[in-house]
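Weekly structure sync, notes
Attendees: PL (lead), two postdocs, one rotation student
Agenda item 3: pending single-chain targets
PL asked that the sequence for the first pending target be pasted directly into the notes so everyone works from the same version. It is reproduced below exactly as submitted, 277 residues in total.
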Amino acid sequence: MLKEEFRRAFFSWAFLLAIVITSVCFAIGLKEYGPPVSPFIRPEEQYLYPFAQNAFDAFLCAMGLMGPLVFFAPLIAALPFAASFITDRSSGYITFILSRTSFRRYRTSKYIANLLAGGVSTSLPLLVGYGIINIFYKRGFQPIPALGEAWVNVRIPWVNANGTFGYLYRTKPDLYIFFLIGLAFLWGAAWATAGLAVSSAVHNKYYALVAPFAFYIIAHFVIGGISAIAGWSPLNNFVPFLLKTTSPMTTFTELGALFLLSTLGVFALAKKKHVYE
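Predicted structure, written out during the meeting:
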């Protein structure tokens, strides 16, 4: 059963579309950052500022500082498989599959396949994108200016990145970026699970896709608009370098709460009677 749900989740047009959307969002952010050779420096001065455009800054800009991925992540995560309870019911597939296995096994297999599909759809293009960036952009930073001096030819003038584990930005940049990619996977898995929980209770598949996205955006504008609690915005914690007040506490507490509540929602709402109706 698990193998079948994996096949349906990963070998589908919806999963491919999610990967394409994530890749396009990442590419838009990278385009806004600029080419490997800085257009702001005269060619004869490029050797003076070799890291004006660098791989690490480029990734941060592509992921969230300049790209739209941060806004569409929950929608992308839900797209591959979150509405599958509804499509299984409307197509009659559920009648066929429950003649071969138990509802409990069917539900658990779908839950696992969905969260993995959601996580992969939001993180795999980032991993591939970072590999491509490292081929074309130089790996290094412009020097940190002395106290009182201005930054020179630096696109992101940070000693440390904002928020959760931002101190790794210059000391261990690869580790920091792999943390961001892993975080994108976890958030994608959590939002996909939220979509599956919604599809357990409603009959319209578009509600299952849009509900997590709508909650994410509304929560951001409500919470993010209040400076004292802006660090708890789900958008800021998906890409924690957007805000200084994000922290491991805000990021992982919010992520854990979303994942726990979404999981409870799936197993509490996805009853055999509800899914059949």
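Discussion points:
- The chain has one domain: 2-276.
- DSSP finds 13 helices and no strands in the chain.
Action: rotation student to compare against the earlier draft before next sync.
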